[in-house]
Amino acid sequence: MGLPKQFLVLFLVVFISVTRQSIGQITFNELPNYSIKTVDSAFFDITSTRKIIPLDGQWNVYTDNEKDTKKYSVTVPSIFKGEGDLIFERKFPISKDDLTRFNAKLVFFGINYTADISLNNVIIYRHPGGEYPFDVALPKDILSADKDNTI
After folding, report:
1. CB 134 within 8 A of CB 127
2. CB-hemisphere CA count at 13 Å for 66?
3. Is the CB of residue 69 less than 8 Å from the CB of residue 13?
4. Helix, strand, coil shares of the chain as percentages rounded to 5?
5. Are 77 and 34 in contact (CB under 8 A)?
6. How far, rounded to the nearest angstrom, does the alpha carbon of residue 46 sit from its chain's CA centroid?
7. How far apart are CA 29 and CA 16, in angstroms?
8. Residue 66 burial by CB count (10 A; 0-12/13-18/19+): exposed, middle or buried?
9. Straight-line distance from the first to the last Cα atom of the chain, in angstroms, rounded to the nearest whole number
10. Please, which residues bridge with residue 86 across strands?
11. Tell me: the pLDDT tens digits for 35-62?
12. Which of 30, 39, 60, 90 is deepest in the core (most CB within 10 A)?
């Protein structure tokens, strides 16, 4: 009767920052030198049965029209101003051992807008918008072991 084994995969937070990057009519504001500090084990609920892969940092961002031609690199967490549908994409590996031992979930600190969250081209969650933290279980039958997975 031990604690459930979980694998926390992602932390997203929205911040205001200094660096700017533009994609068409959309301007991104990034937080310089941001990194998640996992030393607060109580906040992240870190135990010997949990492993964290932080996915903050560089993400590819593009519009559906530019999918094959123009991808921009944007640091997450960030905020943007402007209107348009954007696709945020990040690849991450999971070892066969971790996939077998852990139940994976994606943890968001907040997404302000509506979003379809997909894993390896399968929509696994539709977020209605709002700044509250939430998490999504990552189905093991969609995850690929020992190669890149795409969110």
Report:
1. yes
2. 14
3. no
4. 10, 40, 50
5. yes
6. 18
7. 6
8. middle
9. 33
10. none
11. 666 555 555 566 667 777 778 778 888 8
12. 30
ω before 54 within 30° of 0 (cis)?
no
Q: Which two tokens stand for residue 39?
A: 């030393």
User: How far is residue 87's CA from residue 85's CA, in Å, rounded to a whole number?
Assistant: 7
Report the distance separating Cα 102 and Cα 7, nearest Å: 6
Name the one residue in this structure whose structure tokens are 């459930």: 4
- Token pair of 30 as six digits: 């990034």
What's the token pair of residue 68? 């094959």
Q: Which amino acid type is present at position 87?
A: I
What single letter denotes the amino acid at residue 92? F
Pair type for strands 103-108 and 6-8: parallel
Could you tell me the two tokens for 117? 């969250």
Q: How many whole angstroms from its chain centre is CA 76?
A: 8
Euclidean distance between CA atoms 59 and 11, whole angstroms: 13
Condensed to tens digits (0 to 9), the pLDDT of residues 20-29 reads 444 557 777 7
Cα separation, 83 vs 57, in Å, equals 23
Q: What is the pLDDT of residues 66-75, one digit of tens each?
A: 776 778 888 7
